[in-house]
Amino acid sequence: MTEHTSPSKFEQQRRDKRDKLQALGIDPYGQSITEIQSAQAVKDAFVDDAPSQSARCAGRIVLLRDIGKLIFITLRDSSGTIQLGLSKKLLGDAWESMKLLDLGDVVAAEGQVGRTRTGEITIWTESVTLLSKALLPPPEKFHGLADVDMRYRMRYVDLWANPEVMQRFKQRSAIIASMRHWLTDRGFLEVETPMMQTLAGGAAARPFVTHHNTLDLDLFLRIAPELFLKRLLVGGMEKVFEINRNFRNEGLSTRHNPEFTMIELYQAYADYTVMMDLTEELIGDLIRRHCDSEVLTFGTSSIDFARPWRRARFADLLRQYGDCDMDDMASVRQRARALDIDASNKDDAVVVNDVFEATVEQHLVNPTFVMDYPAAICPLTRPSKADPRFAERFELFIGAMELANAYSELNDPDAQVANFRRQLRGLPEDESMAKMDEDFITALKFGMPPAGGLGIGIDRLVMLLTGATSIRDVILFPLLKPLAAKPEKETTDCADVTDP
């Protein structure tokens, strides 16, 4: 509600209840509570027939049934739910204020713990403290927002209205914590690098542009931390990683959000084969810790994470699924035309990659390391000594979705300058990795050790490990189109609970 918008009749009804509470001397927002127990802890500690089991819980009212001299409430906190039993006999003079409670209110309750006749563990409350009066009604009953778009927009409701949503974000937090511990246990140092950069480099993407007023300087929200992390290798930090946000000015989809989270890491004296082993071990450990099985469901696919994972060369996969051969560019361009890919005025390597994306990636359901990409589209990667046409790079695909990207890092400053200066036909300049970063070149001239580098998309990884098929389901506040104003609709403030 803006300052120019009058409250709906439903909101006004709740405001009237708030005013009545204030008239009774109850502050609807100014209380605090200490020494509370979680709902799950109370239920876990309850022992049948044990004397005097008291508890104090706080949370949101997600179910309420008023049956006269008894009110039954389901209270939800971050651990789960517990039932409150409110009786006029126990609460005495406070009973009048209990009749002013609504779904969505945040309260604290204290009393003796017991069971109802049907076995429901219940706190028979002796005191209830209002902590926050909700002025807007929750979604239909408390079973969640049916409109998926509104769930994303109103995550602050979605989290407590849908327990599975809260659980998924708890899993996300636990997964990231496990990644940190796994790497630090192996000697990696977590670092932070600039989010605003004078040059958007380290990946192929269109950046977001901002401006620093004091310096009168255009800056870019970073598309990748790569070039700064490599500077740290030059400085002597031999194992580094960063978990943070990247920003890419691209479209929205179930797999893309312009602001997303990545982990990027570098290990001196390693190469892309070391990064392959590390990736497989790290994700395997996450599955062991956070999943019930090595076979996970993702949409309509069943993904088997049993190790070892498939390792296949880019050129071989193109022959297998793309029906063309990199050694025969006429066949590649013919395939591109058949796929309605505009191959005119494009470098051969760009066309090859376009055909690969259109024909191969959809088949890579079980974990597959795609190795040895065309060197021309990998300007930051060391070329293969066996065949310089290819780069020591892999991408990991799972569920037909790119999850990770890794290189044997290029540490030859002259070769890096040549790659920065080469602009492939068919790639817009602002989407190319071929951007000259003079300070990075200077750093390379001081000597960067050979290294392996790896980036993993955390949002997509959490999608796979939790079975979420949209990236919006694993980002607390995804970017959405502005929403046109809609009329408010009242919902039912009463639902069945178990009778005592």
Summarize the structure in words.
The protein is built from 15 helices and 18 strands. With 500 residues, it is an alpha+beta fold. The strands form four sheets. It has an eight-stranded mixed sheet, with helices on both faces. Strands 1-2-3-5-4 form a five-stranded mixed β-barrel. The chain starts with 8 loop residues before the first helix and ends in a 34-residue tail after the last helix. The C terminus is likely disordered.
List keywords for this structure.
500 residues; alpha+beta; eight-stranded mixed sheet; 15 helices; 18 strands; disordered C terminus
> What is the count of DSSP helices, taking H or I runs of 4+ residues?
15
Structural class: alpha+beta
Main pleated-sheet profile: 8 strands, mixed
| Percentage beta strand | 15-25%
Task: Itemize the secondary structure elements and their pairings.
Elements: H1 9-23, H2 39-45, E1 54-66, E2 70-77, E3 80-87, H3 88-91, H4 95-98, E4 106-115, E5 121-132, H5 148-153, H6 155-161, H7 163-184, E6 189-190, E7 196-197, E8 208-212, E9 217-221, H8 226-234, E10 239-247, E11 259-268, H9 272-290, E12 295-298, E13 301-304, E14 310-313, H10 314-322, H11 329-338, H12 348-359, E15 368-371, E16 393-398, E17 401-408, H13 413-421, H14 438-445, E18 451-457, H15 458-466
Parallel strand pairs: 3-5, 6-10, 14-15
Antiparallel strand pairs: 1-2, 1-4, 2-3, 4-5, 7-9, 8-9, 10-11, 11-18, 12-13, 15-16, 16-17, 17-18
